[in-house]
Amino acid sequence: MTGGNGIAARLRTITERVLSGSATVFVLLGLILVVISVLNPKFLEPGSLMLFIKKAAPLVLLAIGQYFVIVSGEFDLSVGSLVGAQVVIAALLINGVESATVPVILGMFVGGALIGLVNGLVTTLLKVPSIIATLGMMLVLYGAIRWLTGGAPTGALSESFRVAGRQGIDGVPVIGQIPWALLIMVALGIGAGFLMRSSWGRTLVAVGDNERAATFAGARAWWVKTSAFILSGLLATAAGILLGGYAGVTAQVGQGLEFTAITAVVLGGVVLGGGRGWVVAAMAGALTVEALFRLFTQLNLPSTIRPTAQGLIIIAAVAYAAVDRARRQRTPTTIGTPRHSDVAS
Amino acid sequence: MNALTPSRRSPGMSTTTIVYLALVAILVIGAVLVSMSGRNLFSNANIVDLLTRSSLLGFIAIGQTLVILCRSLDLSVGYVMALSSLIAATTMDGQVSRIPIAMAAALGVAAVIGLVNGVVVTKLKVNAFIATLGMGLIIKGYLDTNYAGPAGDVPEAFQSFGYTRIGPIPLSTIVMFAVAAAGIWFLHRSRTGHHMYAVGGDAEVARMSGVRTDRTVITAHVLCALLAGVAGLLIASRFGTGSAGVYDDGYDLESIAAVVLGGTYLLGGRGGIGGTVGGVLILATLDSVFNTLSVDPFIKDVLRGTIIIAAVAVYARRSLSGAPTRRRFPERPPEPDIPGQPGDTPTHSETGAGGRP
């Protein structure tokens, strides 16, 4: 981007982006938040909003990780079980001992990266479709949880482990408390945004769009994809730390999160199969899913009917976005405009 | 690349051979391991257990094969199975005279769900992963809200579907093999079957060649849901009631694993039901061996996951080396190394159209 018309061009591309594929999610998120606050004005109070953020943060982190993988054309079905295994193992190892917290957290990140590395190498070098590779990993990790817990997890997380998920900077005027979860979420979101603007990010999208073309153009597709899986493992670890801190340890923690994370990413207009989508929209997708859960609570829906509403909304939103995209692709002016060229030009 | 290799009449033959060789190997190794622990893998009870397990997963996996061949996917099969078992059991309500109408109701609802899946995937262009996952969630909500536990009452006469045996072979297994045979005939001899391979191979090319691609994919989804409905009938007849809880048993993902283990290409267009049945038998045999040896569930899942990944890795190498496959449009090379995901028609057709003269 050149200096002269930089800001104007950037504003234009941002508007274009928001109005294009990812518009649905922002409209939907706004709509749901408005409905919630109409039903319950107290929702807009800072404390209540911050509580919402604390609860949503783990899913947002998972959505960032899943975004990297999905935009490169793959799936990561192992993140839910990875979160579960990490939390259960952490509780077992820490067992309430404060001094064990930092080494265990470091170990968790190493473990998460290793799981991601294995997922990535099995997918890229052994050429196993990622849906099967990560499904296998999911089986292994759920097996590990069952084996370690025998139904009920043992041990306990230390207080300092739970700081990230539960606490924040207290005494802030007006807001009261800024949760660490919010800061972590924003920091990682900004990091992910910059990463996607780096050459690594652009290669990732190119590989997701057309791996063969990207390879001919000199991209090391296998490494870019593997690093996306590693990032997904690291972000799942971070999500596990927040979730364990916020909600505590059960054998069920993390169960089904992989599908919720994929739902969030897809709701954010990221196309399964790779090649297009915006990481910020994926994060908004995660917030939308959480807001949806919150709305169901507000409406006093029996918890059992929630999946039905969730399923209907996902299908409707994705169908809307798909039809919208198909319509857009037919107009000749946008055909030659790749989604990410704005950064390069 | 010459597609009209000598194995034209039996496409995927060599993959299927590998699957059954692997099955024999696993049976032999399993039998040796089990006999070392002083038991017999081929005891009557074990064989009945193994075959019953196979028939349940088999029905679902045969249907899953059809949708995967079309480059689609069905994650709602477990929920359809639970729903149809409940519809059947509550409609029968213990009366023999209501068996036909109960079966019709259960299968009818299943078919309608398949129809909706297919229409959402083809007409609304929702990725199959999301469409069927969403459908699964919708059914789950309905089931959880309306059925707290098992419901309905299945008369003795219908329970015979689940318990009748000819020698050690359960009736349900025979029905499953018959369905598999019909499916193989359907794929290899019927026009719609050929269209399924064509659509899975390249939807855009198939469409330009005059195949009604949407209709083909919808047919596959309807058949898949119908077979999940049959699995539900089997559940009802074995349990004596309908059961909502079966959707938690992971049949959706396991059926996909069986299909892929059976050599069907996850991106569509290659493979078949013969291999899938082999994949189902392998998974059931592994389960049976693990249970007889009372293997720790942890090790069991690790082994199962590893075996699935290893098997698929073997196939991946094969397809890269240009093994004989059923290629409907030989002038266009397949794209084994483009790891798009199933149902990814927009991007795929886009790049496909751009790359063609």
TrEMBL record, chain A:
One of its GO terms (molecular function) is transmembrane transporter activity. InterPro entries: ABC_transp_permease (IPR001851). The keyword Transport applies. Signal peptide: none annotated. Keywords: Cell inner membrane, Cell membrane, Membrane, Transmembrane, Transmembrane helix, Transport. It is found in: Cell membrane. GO terms for cellular component: plasma membrane. The chain crosses the membrane at residues 18-39, 51-71, 77-97, 104-122, 128-148, 169-195, 228-249, 261-284, 304-323. It is a multi-pass membrane protein. PANTHER family: ABC TRANSPORTER PERMEASE PROTEIN YPHD-RELATED-RELATED, AUTOINDUCER 2 IMPORT SYSTEM PERMEASE PROTEIN LSRD. This is Autoinducer 2 import system permease protein LsrD.
From TrEMBL, chain B:
It comes from the Bacteria. The chain crosses the membrane at residues 18-38, 50-69, 98-119, 126-143, 163-187, 217-236, 256-286. It is a multi-pass membrane protein. GO terms for cellular component: plasma membrane. This is Autoinducer 2 import system permease protein LsrD. One of its GO terms (molecular function) is transmembrane transporter activity. It comes from Stackebrandtia endophytica. It is found in: Cell membrane. Keywords: Cell inner membrane, Cell membrane, Membrane, Transmembrane, Transmembrane helix, Transport. Its main location: membrane. Residues 323-357 are annotated as: Disordered.
